[in-house]
């Protein structure tokens, strides 16, 4: 079978950009991205896409209406597709068995049942969402238990490695594409068919094929390794603050060893994002279920250290402000979980803001890309607070950094947006309350210059 039509279930941060790039690079394949949410699909079909991602607008503009379509007509799209990506969300369970750790596979199961209900011809079903090892077996069981006569399914694992903020570059110049399939002639044929799609732009040597379970586990492992590097350097940032060593210098020296490498060693306020914590918790739960408590405890420490880092930073803010922030105006610069995205999922800024609000602070928040309502939502939804009205009263969202800092006792930098590096800090010093405090949670500011202007400055991994 030559793949002529692709359907993607889930028009989120993964489904949208991934399929847009497939459409760009494979002009002869019709790609339809579907979602249950009409609002999301309408946004994909509008001038203001539902996610901010550098380079994405141009790709969508070039392909939309040509061979790229966004639709809520899931039935039509499944019926015509040769290959179906499942890119639905796989959040951590919030209730029941495994609550707080296990992946909630209800959307994966829902997608598999939709395909089983609708499909009337052979399909290659590709698990793109991040899932626990053996999740493909669930999809397989559902599909094969509901197969219509003459319909055959092949299930592949093809995890996604893009990072938000660099998704388009990550997809166009992927270091590796991973495809796992069954070790049967039909399974291997399906693997080759998906390889063919990627070979339109990815060199064959960068396409790795494995068995299904290795592919599923490799995705969890990759995220766990990345997060572990951040927790490792963050643990050392505490040692630096206590001793006078500088964590940036330590990272530079350690990273120069080519066996370790320089990337992903930026000490910070803690990692955020929708996946690191979720995927490690998933690995921990899996290890526990496999009766491997030592393995679970090892990875648990990566998450615990991250919580410690967020707490340590926030405690430093409060203690520096004479151990009371009640009724004090505090400017928060940056709310997304990293620069170049409007995504706030698991952003460390949420923990910082929530703790300061609990202490009675008045927060003045500015982020260049996060929607105002999203900030209110993150700080006032029931899992965060049982006093949503109070939260709204104590938050003000600003259109510029300058208006957020006016009259503030402290400036707390939570996201490393480039524009924060070039603000006029002399002007900011003038309009802030004195003593004026800066807490740089991302180590991006010129601390010497700030100290010379009269600021009290604290950062991560360096005593000033
Ligand atoms: P998301 O929440 O942005 O998007 C998921 C979408 O799926 C939602 O719009 C939802 O409405 C839709 N959906 C759910 N069930 C559906 C169904 N049956 N039919 C059609 N649509 C359905 O999630 P995301 O960030 O794109 O992540 C998706 C998966 O990819 C997750 O497993 C995640 O771990 C993984 N992943 C995410 C990233 C990332 O950077 N966000 C990177 C790599 C992997
Ligand atoms: C991460 C991985 O990098 C992707 O490969 C993966 O596909 C994705 O998760 C996923 O599975 O969802 P993402 O979360 O989008 O991508 O962004 P990262 O660049 O990895 O940053 C994650 C968090 O770690 C951010 O809060 C960032 O600020 C923080 N970070 C990153 C540090 O604190 N220090 C660093 O050195 C690097």
UniProtKB/TrEMBL annotation:
Which keywords label this protein? Answer: NAD, Oxidoreductase
Which terms under GO biological process does the entry name?
glycosaminoglycan biosynthetic process; UDP-glucuronate biosynthetic process
Q: Which residues cross the membrane?
A: none
Return the EC number: 1.1.1.22
**Cellular component terms, GO, for this chain's entry?**
nucleus
Is NAD among the key words of this record? yes
* Described purpose of this protein according to its UniProt entry: Involved in the biosynthesis of glycosaminoglycans; hyaluronan, chondroitin sulfate, and heparan sulfate.
Protein name per UniProt: UDP-glucose 6-dehydrogenase
Q: From what organism does this protein derive?
A: Danaus chrysippus
